């Protein structure tokens, strides 16, 4: 591949300096390059544009080609394909004065062309190897398609299912979220960013974006520092500790200051306290949006953001158009511009782009690796492991591969909706539908199909959801006629499989919902089907926890399949027909009622604790509904049943250097093999601040054959007891601790120990 002549002399200088460590080699290289750059070229490196295809706001980049040639662009996102990317890269390395290669980014969120389950689904696998593998495959395909930067992982802790972006994250828990953040960073970046199949990861949205008021996207966040440090910041920190190369700032304010221009966040905490040395990019026009937040005009907010520690401005071009003026007027420093520019160049250096700007453009790799059989096979397995069985009365599942099955519902034959939100490069036409999967896995069964209902009958709502294509397809037939047809085939069948739920883009960015129950059209269908008296299995597509009280009371089984990606239909059939026993566990609690939100397992006890459904006056509860979720965090059934022995601990006292081993024996009491996720929670009974009633601290996945039992040992040390106190110091305080172990956050065995210093 082509080398850049202009840099040969620089490389020679570097190689002659007696093998300095890679980092200082990079610094020398970047410093030498920056000496040649004008201030305009330095500011140009801070500009990230999209020529289309990845528009998530009202502003779109213009004159991209001319700007690249003028050295006014540092990176591009939203295009794919080795040929297109090579073409764009050529503009930079053959036509710009200094021939500095571009970064190429994309939202590779849950797979690239082989699409995996949406992140909340992936998180329900609680399987870090599996999640890392999904990110690895995404990076292999993304880089084969010309990319070198993904805007993932999204690690925002979220406890409000009205917020559509819960689909993009890993749920409510900081410990689980942190482990997933590490796994994803490892998967994307591997151990060497200069390899042609690894890419820069970008942890987002920094920070606290998941706590938007009322679940409304882009909305206000306001929380105590104690909550931030203990509950919301850990996953970002875990990604930084895992070596994530880039960070994206969020849209929200923190303590009233937009994150994108928040110096406390981006410099004092991220860089100084956490030691992050990589690149910080804004979210889509989040610099400009600071004017709407009311903190200044474009010049002012651009200066604020740069000075706060932001390096790259996504799409808005506030940096490009105002920083030079601010420099002349003494409102920003030359050093701030140079530091930001150096970080962009360092990211390029780490990727090896100065060595070979086309290293990610390889048609052959694209042809052989993208959507390969091996990747599709992995997608099928990973999808099956993300599904959560919420109910299975009388062991109605797994289904027999014979007999008559009524397959109904608007998502049973909806290729458009299989991939889920944020599958930018995914081709929905390559996905497997539920009807196809069922027919291929159970070719001996007689599967009768009727759509039965539209996802929603509301055409105005459908128009808002259908911005990326027709996901809600409103049938020409009346709802009565569709229901009649479904009831008719239900009457002829032994069991009804109802494939229902949300359209793919009813969650994701800008997809907040006030009502998180099934749309009325689908409820009507279910009510009519229930009257047939036939058992109903609900296969639920959803990007958020939904309220399912009626469904739980009236249906035989509920299998939550999220949005499973390219192999959805096959994976669903594998589980429905028992080729794989479901093993997913919820990473987010499912409320009984939308009015309970936020509902999550690590709540504080309060001064007037909830005392169960019967208790009412002068307690922290509702008069009309219980406090408990319908399905708690960590919950999920399997086709077998597991029992837990009593919880044993080897000591009742822990000191600062020792450890306690907590042991529990889990038995598979059923007739089939299964996988159980054993979860350990801790409660710090008395602290200098009020501490959560349960905090997840460990989990382990165990495979158990029918009749088999295994003992799981968890080691607990002082580090597991630490939290940020009101001075924001990380401390473990002496006193009593409770320890809980079980198959979900509600049904647990308990023990206790004392921590002494
Ligand atoms: C806006 C979204 O908030 C962010 O997650 C995404 O990476 C960017 N748009 C780029 O598409």
Structure write-up:
The chain has 757 residues and is an alpha/beta fold. Among the domains are: 149 residues, Glycoside hydrolase, family 3, N-terminal domain (TIM Barrel, Alpha-Beta Barrel), CATH 3.20.20; 213 residues, 3-Layer(aba) Sandwich (Rossmann fold), CATH 3.40.50; 37 residues, no CATH class; 114 residues, Immunoglobulin-like. The strands form 7 sheets. It has a 6-stranded mixed beta sheet, sandwiched between helices. A hairpin with a 5-residue loop joins strand 24 and strand 25. Helix 7 packs antiparallel against helix 17. It is globular. It starts with 7 loop residues before the first helix and ends with a strand. The N terminus is likely disordered. Bound molecules: 1-deoxynojirimycin (NOJ). The site of 1-deoxynojirimycin has 8 residues, from loops.
The CATH superfamily of the domain at 376-588 is identified as: Glycoside hydrolase family 3 C-terminal domain
- How much strand content do the residues show? 15-25%
Low-confidence stretches: 1-17
**Helix share of residues?**
25-40%
Please provide the count of β strands.
27
Distinct ligands: 1-deoxynojirimycin
What is the CATH class name of the domain at 376-588? Alpha Beta
How would the global form be characterised? globular
Strand order of the largest sheet: 11-16-15-14-12-13
């Amino acid at each position: 591949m082509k080398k850049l002549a202009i840099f040969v002399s620089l490389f020679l200088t570097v190689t002659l300096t007696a093998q300095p460590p890679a980092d200082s080699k990079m610094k020398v290289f970047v410093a030498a390059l920056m000496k040649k750059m004008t201030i305009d070229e330095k500011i140009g490196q801070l500009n990230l544009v999209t020529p289309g295809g990845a528009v998530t706001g009202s502003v779109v980049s213009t004159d991209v080609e001319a700007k690249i040639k003028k050295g006014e662009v540092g990176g591009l996102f939203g295009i794919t394909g080795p040929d297109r990317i090579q073409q764009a890269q050529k503009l930079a390395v053959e036509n710009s004065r200094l021939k500095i290669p571009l970064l190429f980014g994309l939202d590779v969120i849950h797979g690239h062309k082989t699409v995996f389950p949406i992140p909340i689904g992936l998180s329900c696998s609680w399987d870090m190897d599996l999640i890392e593998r999904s990110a690895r495959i995404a990076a292999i395909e993304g880089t084969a398609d010309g990319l070198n930067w993904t805007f993932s992982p999204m690690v925002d802790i979220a406890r409000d299912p009205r917020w559509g972006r819960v689909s993009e994250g890993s749920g409510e828990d900081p410990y689980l979220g942190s482990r997933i953040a590490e796994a994803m960073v490892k998967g994307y970046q591997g151990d060497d960013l200069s390899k042609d199949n690894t890419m820069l990861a970008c942890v987002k949205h920094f920070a606290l974006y998941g706590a938007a008021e009322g679940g409304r996207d882009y909305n206000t966040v306001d929380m105590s520092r104690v909550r931030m440090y203990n509950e919301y910041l850990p996953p970002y920190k875990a990604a930084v500790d895992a070596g994530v190369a880039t960070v994206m700032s969020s849209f929200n304010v923190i303590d009233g200051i937009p994150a994108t221009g928040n110096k406390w966040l981006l410099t004092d905490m991220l860089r100084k306290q956490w030691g992050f040395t990589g690149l910080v990019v804004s979210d889509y026009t989040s610099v400009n949006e600071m004017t709407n937040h009311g903190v200044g005009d474009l010049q002012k907010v651009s200066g604020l953001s740069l000075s706060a520690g932001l390096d790259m401005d996504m799409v808005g071009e506030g940096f490009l158009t105002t920083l030079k003026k601010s420099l002349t007027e003494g409102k920003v420093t030359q050093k701030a511009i140079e530091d930001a520019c150096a970080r962009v160049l360092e990211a390029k250096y780490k990727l090896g782009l100065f060595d070979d700007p086309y290293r990610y453009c390889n048609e052959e790799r694209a042809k052989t690796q993208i959507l390969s059989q091996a990747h599709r096979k992995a997608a099928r397995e990973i999808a099956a492991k993300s599904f959560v069985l919420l109910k299975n009365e009388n062991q109605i599942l797994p289904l027999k591969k014979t007999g008559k099955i009524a397959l109904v519902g608007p998502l049973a034959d909806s290729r458009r909706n299989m991939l889920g939100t944020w599958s930018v490069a995914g081709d929905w036409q390559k996905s497997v539908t539920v009807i196809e999967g069922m027919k291929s896995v159970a070719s001996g069964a007689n599967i009768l199909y009727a759509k039965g209902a539209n996802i929603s009958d509301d055409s105005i709502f459908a128009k808002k959801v259908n911005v990326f294509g027709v996901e809600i397809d409103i049938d020409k037939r009346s709802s009565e006629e569709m229901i009649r047809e479904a009831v008719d085939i239900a009457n002829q069948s032994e069991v009804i499989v109802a494939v229902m739920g949300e359209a793919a883009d009813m969650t994701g960015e800008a997809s907040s919902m006030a009502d998180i129950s099934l749309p009325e059209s689908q409820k009507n269908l279910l009510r009519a089907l229930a009257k047939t008296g036939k058992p109903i299995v609900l296969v639920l597509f959803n990007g958020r926890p939904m309220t399912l009280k009626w469904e739980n009371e009236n249906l035989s089984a509920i299998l939550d399949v999220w949005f499973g990606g390219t192999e959805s239909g096959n994976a669903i059939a594998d589980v429905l027909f028992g080729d794989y026993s479901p093993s997913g566990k919820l990473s987010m609690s499912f409320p009984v009622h939308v009015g309970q939100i936020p509902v999550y397992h690590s709540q504080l006890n309060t001064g007037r604790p909830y005392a169960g459904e019967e208790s009412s006056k002068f307690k922290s509860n509702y008069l009309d509904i219980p406090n408990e979720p319908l399905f708690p965090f960590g919950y999920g059934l399997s086709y077998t049943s597991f029992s837990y022995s009593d919880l044993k601990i080897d000591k009742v006292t822990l000191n600062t250097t020792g450890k306690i081993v907590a042991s529990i024996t889990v038995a598979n009491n059923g007739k089939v093999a299964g996988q159980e996720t054993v979860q350990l929670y801790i409660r710090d009974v008395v602290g200098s601040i009020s501490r959560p009633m349960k905090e997840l601290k460990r989990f382990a996945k165990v495979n158990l054959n029918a009749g088999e039992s295994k003992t799981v040992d968890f080691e607990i040390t002082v580090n597991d007891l630490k939290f940020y106190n009101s001075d924001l110091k990380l401390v473990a305080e002496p006193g009593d601790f409770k320890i809980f172990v079980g198959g979900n956050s509600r049904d647990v065995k308990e023990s206790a120990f004392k921590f002494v210093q």
